[in-house]
Design brief:
Layout: E1 2-3, E2 9-10, E3 13-15, E4 18-21, E5 24-26, E6 30-32, E7 38-42, E8 45-54, E9 70-75, E10 80-88, E11 93-98, E12 103-111, E13 127-132, E14 137-140, E15 176-179, E16 184-189, E17 194-197, E18 201-203, E19 215-221, E20 225-228, E21 232-234, E22 241-247, E23 251-254, E24 258-260, E25 267-273, E26 277-280, E27 284-286, E28 293-299, E29 302-305, E30 309-311, E31 318-324, E32 328-337, E33 344-350, E34 353-363, E35 368-374, E36 377-388, E37 393-399, E38 402-412, E39 417-423, E40 426-429, E41 433-437, E42 442-448, E43 452-463, E44 468-474, E45 477-487, E46 492-498, E47 501-512, E48 517-523, E49 526-536, E50 541-547, E51 550-553, E52 557-561, E53 566-572, E54 576-587, E55 592-598, E56 601-611, E57 616-622, E58 625-628, E59 632-634
Parallel strand pairs: 1-4, 2-5, 3-6, 4-7, 5-8, 6-8, 7-9, 8-10, 9-11, 10-12, 11-13, 12-14, 12-15, 13-16, 14-17, 15-18, 16-19, 17-20, 18-21, 19-22, 20-23, 21-24, 22-25, 23-26, 24-27, 25-28, 26-29, 27-30, 28-31, 29-32, 30-32, 31-33, 32-34, 33-35, 34-36, 35-37, 36-38, 37-39, 38-40, 38-41, ...
Amino acid sequence: MCFFLGSRLAYAENIDSNTVISDGNISGSLNIGIKNNANVDINGTVNIKDYFSVATCNGQSSTCPEGGLIASANIDKSASVGASVTIVGDSSKGELNIDGGSTLYTQQLWVSGNDNDKTSNVSDDSNGSLKINNGSNVFVVSSQDDTPFKTNPVKWNQNIISQGNNITDGTVSSGDLVLGKTGNGIIDIDNNSKLDVKNDVVVSTGVDGIPNEKPSEINIKNESNFSVHGDMKGGISAAGKLNLNMDNSSNLHVDKNIAVGIGRESNITVSASRESSIFSDGNFTVATGNNSNANLKLDASNLSVNGVSTIGSGDGSITKFDIKNGSVVTSSSDMTLAKGKGTQANINISSSELNTGSLSVGEGDNADVKMTGSGASVSSKKTFTVAKGNNASATLNYTGSKIDIGSGYIGEGESAKTQLELNNSALTASGKVFIGQGNTTQTNLTLNDKSSVNVSGEMSVAQGSSASVDVTATNAVLSADSLSLGGGEAAKVTMTGSGATVSSKNTFTVAKGNNASATLDYTDSKIDIGSGYIGEGEAAKTQLELNNSALTASGKVFIGQGNTTQTNLTLNDKSSVNVSDEMSVAQGSSASVDVTITNAVLSADSLSLGGGEAAKVTMTGNRATISSGNTFTVA
């Protein structure tokens, strides 16, 4: 059956069959698929006063035939269609295909759902699909005046814009697109096509009493564009699911905020590849409810946010962020990933950049964070916070990478665990860095292969009762204005250097606390400090061994200060200790020190070994040079 409307005026058209529509004006609605399956081809210019609907069953799921129906509309061959409100797939499966350089203009667009049976709580089979292909366009506009139909004698109905579209018992307005209100909403934009929304895009909304748990999809491919001039946001059922896929120089541009998946158990997947880009001129909020999942993948693509980014936050949330092949992620303000109790975050950056104002990953009790980088550039101008919370854990591993931060807070909280490994990588901080702060924290810091840590302010590692830190530096640099390793009762420090350079311009403090212990072993290394405080506290234990290494202090050095301290100082193979000021070792009641110097140098302005009641000093020299410019005090 064919309808050639020509120039005549038609009233409402309800079509439940296969047909073709050419040019014409409709002073009511064009409804395709009310009671039966239908397919309509539109090849001309058609203007519709009220609704342009595909597979709606009059908007009531209870009136659909058993098993639902399937209806489709195809706008092709440079056709042009205008309608006040367009609905695709309410209560049944609807497809709207726009192809061949065609264009749809509408004040409001619903893909999967409009006025569901709100009071009956009836589950329906809503499934709407909008496909824009081959240089075609869809414009969701504020009014008919923004379209070529502005002079058309059939004027769009303004009254239906705010009727029957219950979202949180409110309304959407002109220029809005709703995706997945009551079912699966799918938007495909392909082959240099465009979807332009004047106001907001509302994703996975549901209605009161019937949250939408069905996934929606947005696919933007092959140099296509999706522009949103308002917000992209979730509705009443913010726990809905959204998959956003972009490929081959495609773009999503949102003038205001992106906020989708903001309720419990939301599931948001974002994938962009081959020079695609996502831009939000406001905030970027994704999957922030409890037990939510956020999965972001960027492959040779960009994500740019002009505001605050919040991804995968909420208790029990899981966040995966994969950035690779020259991708760039920029958040001009703060970026927060996986914030909440028991969150999990897996961040991988490969030959790509992550740039933020402040970056927080896994902030909350029992948070678990894994960050890996290969050829990565990470910049956090203000603060860099990872795994902050009781029993939190952080595993950071970077190879051939650069990390530039303001201040850093890693593995802070009772029993927090931190593993930080750098391989041919550099971490630079313009402020302070705190790692493993809290009682019974465990910290492993490994610097390999020309790696470096340079902190302009204070660097403090493993501060707390029974806190422990293991530092290994191999052909690497560890530098800070002040460096403190292991502070607190029973704190434990193990530090091994091979070809290492350790620099602390102000103070160098190791294992300070009662029953604290320090094991320092350096080979072919240089340690340049201001003043040094090692193994201070009642019953503290210190083992310091230098092999072909040099420790130079511009200020004072105190080792093994406290009652019953035990200190072992071993200098081998052309090693040297040079202290410009006082050097004091094993000061306290029953304190003991064992000094062994073999083909090495021990020098200080004043040198004191063993001071206090029952102090014990053992000193052995073999081809040793001992120098004390002022006083030399032993036992």
